[in-house]
## 1
Amino acid sequence: MANVVVVGAQWGDEGKGKIVDWLSSRADVIARFQGGHNAGHTLVVDGKVYKLHALPSGVVRGGKLSVIGNGVVLDPWHLVKEIATVREQGVTISPETLMIAENTPLILPIHGELDRAREEAASKGTKIGTTGRGIGPAYEDKVGRRSIRVADLADDATLEARVDRALQHHDPLRKGLGIEAVDRDALITQLKEIAQDILPYAAPVWKVLNEKRKAGKRILFEGAQGALLDIDFGTYPFVTSSNVIAGQAATGVGIGPGSIDYVLGIVKAYTTRVGEGPFPTELLDAEGKPDADGQRLGERGHEFGTTTGRQRRCGWFDAALVRQTCATSGIKGICLTKLDVLDGFEKLKICVGYELDGDRLDYLPTAADQQARCTPIYEEIDGWSESTEGARSWNDLPANAIKYVRRVEELIECPVALLSTSPERDDTILVTDPFED
Ligand code: IMP
């Protein structure tokens, strides 16, 4: 019985929602292990569209246990609203179907304020382009040992002491940014009120998951963002504040690394990114605006963010970067998505490495100045004029599309386990079932 981790292998927005939904229909437990409500997962189930940010995708399917692990940072006010929204859509959520790890750090309103104030104050070139949801400041408080965690909501004295500790740090910081000091009593009142809504879901998730595992239940670990936004292995500092790579699945819920049997990387057939930071294959014109190919990818691929609505930057497939993320996440197979967006291009380009100061590199170097000087080395491939949308078998694909997929596999040194050919669940070509591998 396999447990599967799903991670984005680029900068997020690879189309994880559909695949996670398909896999979750066959899992017993679906666990989020990092990130927060900066994520946006769109699910289409029986014609109904669900937009989830904090809740694991499993909630929309009956009979599953959904888990928010300790690796997540949780905005309790957002969660309560999200639960209300999906309930209105007919989804049942109860402490039997949703558990939140007691050691999950909370995102407070002051974290969002700080996130946005810093972004506004940032000089050119230093803005991260965050989602403004307070993710970074909440993780800073976690490692700074001044978080308020879910379990702290259960005891008034502990809660007040935790708030005081956090404010010792935050008030001077806010003063420096020209924001008024926090209203301590109002914050404590807000927390005590929300505690009643959150505490019923609090549980020792590590224990529950270890028991489930021993009982032979299937666990699906649902990643958010993408490996190039990883705090250690991403394009730092233009990253999110959590570990996104697959190893985090174990730490983010409290289950050993041996519990992970299969890592599925979700990979878009081209590349997109939201927010600032390096993007070697970005398709720009001389004025720094999307060029004709970049615009075409964005329009055909509907490349607008689920969480912020921002237009995504678009570029050719970067095999060097995906080879890197396949390695750092231990990806066993990929799901290639949105191949149909490439339909109709006469020629396609794939980045196979970089040129830096006359040398050829097969990976993106870490130093920011070197990254900026890297120029992509492209391989050109013939495109196809036929439609690949909705293909359900290899026979439905034009020969050049198959060649493209095969070349991607060779270059990233990882096989295609699934090929997704439209947002519809059944428009998928299955090569390897991650749960059965
Ligand atoms: P933060 O996670 O809000 O701190 O934002 C840091 C960076 O991660 C920014 O470039 C965001 O655009 C990016 N980011 C955060 N969440 C997502 C996501 O779910 N998809 C794509 N990019 C994301």
## 2
Amino acid sequence: MSDPVSVRHFLSLMDLSPDELRALIARAAELKRLQRAGTPHASLQGKVLAMIFEKSSTRTRVSFEAGMIQLGGASMFLSPRDTQLGRGEPIEDTARVLSRMVDCIMIRTFDHADLETFARHSRVPVINGLTDMCHPCQLLADMQTYFEHRGDIAGKTVAWVGDGNNMCHSYISAAKQFDFSLRIACPEGFDPDAQVLALAADRCDVMRDPRAAVDGVDLVVTDTWISMGQEDEKARRERAFAGYMVDGSMMARAHADALFLHCLPAYRGKEVAADVLDAPDSVVWDEAENRMHAQKALLEFLIG
Ligand code: CP
Ligand code: NVA
């Protein structure tokens, strides 16, 4: 039987144009105002989102579920433990079946290639809810948060301090799509993927010294040193990342107006000092909330 029809997916930030991304951020701000004012905005009545989680989640799950309810639709949580996926039903077959019943599918998994395989066999839009390669939904929220507090990020300088991981990769894509410069400070052996870096080579600098990286920047971002699936590497990673914790003395080197972002969950005293996370220039709670508003805008864009 033939496989689908071309639909728009959101597997990485590169799947939308810069104009589409900016429109989405603007719509997210509008949806936030509507929700705060208690104004109904049920634009996805009767629509269903399926969510497959092969890794843990707090924010992603709750933001999509709450968002779909607010838009008048519904969502369902599927885990490999209690679906046939966990017993070996092929990804392709699962995609064919699910996409005949629901209007959109969100997936959080390990291997990005599995997400791409799923999307190729889906009749409905597929959203990346995090893979080992990238976390584009988080970047929608991060960009919304920066815009909300400081205005346009175009032409600004951002420092990524820590692991060259999935979040770092999405920052590289964002540097290209939103037109900012990115300094990436990571220990040797923890660089971002060279192919991802090549996407925005003209806007990114990889460096070893985190203090030099944050000098005068407009935004400082970090993430855990031990991503989901890397638990066995904890001791080795904590040794390698010594000196990379974002602390008050590091933040003091950034621009006076600089913001601090972290996708969360955060490990105080590891990648970020407690007083940085809890300081007024840390906007991580707005960032977490904006996951919901930004993804509502994304769902409208893809389904609506
Ligand atoms: N930032 C983020 O994706 O959080 P969760 O793992 O809780 O979904
Ligand atoms: N880099 C982290 C992000 C969690 C939202 C991970 O992959 O576990």
## 3
Amino acid sequence: MCGIIGYIGKREAYPIIIKGLKRLEYRGYDSSGVAILNGELNVYKKKGKVNDLVEFVSDSNISGTLGMGHTRWATHGVPDDINAHPHLSGNNRLVIIHNGIIENYASIKLWLESQGHEFTSETDTEVLIHLIEEIQEKGQLPIEEAVRLALNEVVGAYAIVVIDRLDPNKLVAARKSSPLVVGIGKDNDYFLASDATPIVEYTNQVVYLDDDEIAVLERDKGLRIMDKDKVDKMPFIHEIDMKIEELEKGGYDYFMLKEIYEQPKSIAECMRGRFSTEEGWIRLGGILQHKNRICNADRIIIVACGTSWHSGLIAEYLIEELARIPVEVEYASEFRYRNPIISEKDIVIAISQSGETADTLAALELAKKKGALTYGIVNVVGSSIARITDAGSYIHAGPEIGVASTKAFTGQVTLLTLMALHIANEKGTISRSKYHELVAEIGNIPKKVQKALESNEQIKLISEKFKDAENALYLGRGYNFPVALEGALKLKEISYIHAEGYPAAEMKHGPIALIDENMPVVVIATNKSAHEKIISNVQEVKARKGVVIAVVNEGDEVMARIADYIIEIPTTAEPFTPLLSVIPLQLLSYHIAVMRGCNVDQPRNLAKSVTVE
Ligand code: AGP
């Protein structure tokens, strides 16, 4: 998810664009750049935050009333000065910024190279501007027509802004699956941005572009919108009244809630291009790169911290059940200091949203030194862990701003599920029918997560009852035991209520002494294979006056008669349960924290990335 902005009008473009990029930095911040036209195309781009770009540009006097800016969240190509946007065409006549993914960029790039084009970056965006150039040159076309024809060749998601140096009174934009807003200023000013945050201080009149629409903003001629077949569209002008900080959060009160609701999309993004229900396959590039060594490993060791450690525990169940490879899950901070026994027959997987957690990084370096193959499962493209591992897979969850990890957790679990299935299929440790059944079901997960989110209002009511609790217990079995740990972590880190996660069967070995009418017990009871057992665990709690909130498969009438509160989630294959059973726990912790007046996005004492030991 990147931030893009464009401006055409009578004012100096540079200050408007820089200010707008700072408003958009929450969307991505690994590199940024600007392009201003004043006869020449002045392009400046820099790895780092927008302030690094400002420093870099500081000695240049950039004047011009037409320009664009981009703050990047890398998907193709590591964050550096070359891969940063904007990108120029080969003839230095055109410049583009882009938010999205061009899925067929590789084949287009090969064709363009056969036509003599040369590329400087690793990005899909640079391919697109060369394609627009090729089409424009061949047909001697106006820029908006060249853009339209090029986009008809493209598969993927995009929000783009394009400037043609030889057409200095025009700004062209287009969108498909990535947001793009047109701002209509008062004195013939026009703005373009990924959302309204950079626009609202200049105007509250906006037009939200729809998919396959192309906008042409022309000085003194105004706004024209056409579809991909060149049919003119009547722009619908909205009046916005949201405040800026609300806009950054997409209308949600906190980034954490926005990110909880992004999960159907972020899980789909994680799976995009990595599986096919129709053809029945799952493919992870990182696994294919080292297939033999991974499939013949003696052991898989997972090192991580916090929530990422919880997704590692889920991976232990997934990989051992499906791929039959022994798995050990280690707290990175412990692993790195206990002189572990590691051999070249081991695979060490590091799981990390930030890719910068000091303990996880150190554990990885130790594993590399001892000859293990290292694999990274990371969200931030080009982060330290992504760079030092022998192979890896990005979870493509987009920037996670809330300190409490939500969409990164489900992104990690999604990736690990794909990994377990990919290895299992390579090793033949599950039948073809089982494999195809699971590949088909995993494609249903995003919409089942969407369904699980529908319990939000009910969960908010339940939260009212428990917002003043001082302790809480989370119980789960099998795949849901790590989910119980994750639910407890969510509650304690944002509401400051002490909470513990336990295997449900472990109650009788001590924790049951804690149970009384003041102890809410959250039980994740979706297991089909151990349903009777978890029913009896709940009865043990009830017998001691415990109050039970049960997360169950929809239609579980048995539990409905026993528990005090029931939260239903859609049924799915047992290995995929964590992706659904965690959703109510995220919402429960969120609402309780809000009711307790806590700062949900920046809880006390915590940082988003623990880069110190
Ligand atoms: C989770 O909600 C916490 N923010 C924290 O436990 C986090 O998961 C942990 O610090 C690991 O971070 P990483 O995934 O970036 O390595």
